[in-house]
Amino acid sequence: MSAAGSGAGGGGVGGKEDKYAKGMAHKTAGNTAFGQGDLAAALREYHFAVLYLKAIDTRSILGLMGENEGRDGHPDDLSSVSSSDPDPEPDEQDGDGDGDGEPTPQSASAGDRARRKAEKQLSLVHSNMSLIYLRQTKYTRAIEAAEAALKADSSNTKAKFRKAQALRLDAQLYAARQFLESVLTGTGAKRISQEDKKSLQSELDRTIALIEAKQSRERAKWKGFLGKKPDSSNSKSKSAES
Q: What is the pTM for the complete model shown?
């Protein structure tokens, strides 16, 4: 096992802090392994990170706040998802706040702050796992990991981009189009940065182009099928027999 150690017990604030620290240690180890090209080791560390972060009595607070409803109504993860760089480095949003460099509202209880912080990081870890599955061409798992990231934090733009990529690469073109259109036109669209909107729109354009090419091939196939004439030699032989 890694340096983070084992055990996920402890229910008080101290116990939660210990779980969070161990989860973050595994996340950091996963990022290091990813940077070294060891995807199997990175996945292993991310799995341990998920176990510890989930143990902090998570209740999907960020996910329940609605599409892109980050803290105070602002998206919490708007790091670039540029389609020109489909395989960015694993997300790094460590710190004592919600992951974007700002402190968690002090009006929240210590337990709520711990949960919010854990769910933010849990979303990032799942998104990192989605990226690895994309590289391994395990598209179904990539979709599932991205959806888990969005369940923990619906504002995770990278997770949205990776889910759309995985759907397209898994040949689920219509599902990819529908998902991207909902992201770009839904209630949370106004909170997505212009840079990320361009990346998402580029992915949508690519998906639409593939759908149109597929439809064109299908039309050509049916046109050829319907345009076929009966075999003239076969018709003549039948006439001679009669």
A: 0.73
173 vs 214: CA distance, rounded Å: 10
Give first-to-last CA distance, the chain, whole Å: 84
Task: State phi, psi for 29 to the nearest 5 degrees.
Answer: -65, -35
Please give the Cα distance from 199 to 79 (Å, whole number).
11
Q: What share of the chain is helix, strand, coil (3-state, %, to 5)?
A: 65, 0, 35
Q: Angle CA(132)–CA(102)–CA(73) in degrees, nearest 5?
A: 85
Interval 170-212: pLDDT, tens: 999 999 999 999 999 998 899 999 999 999 999 999 999 999 9
What the chain holds in terms of domains, given with CATH numbers, is 13-222 (1.25.40.10)
Nearest Cα to Cα of residue 156 among 49, 54, 68: 68
Q: Which two structure tokens, joined as six digits, stand for 73?
A: 């109504």
Rounded to an integer, what distance in angstroms lies between the CA atom of residue 199 and that of residue 215?
25
Res 162: pLDDT: 98
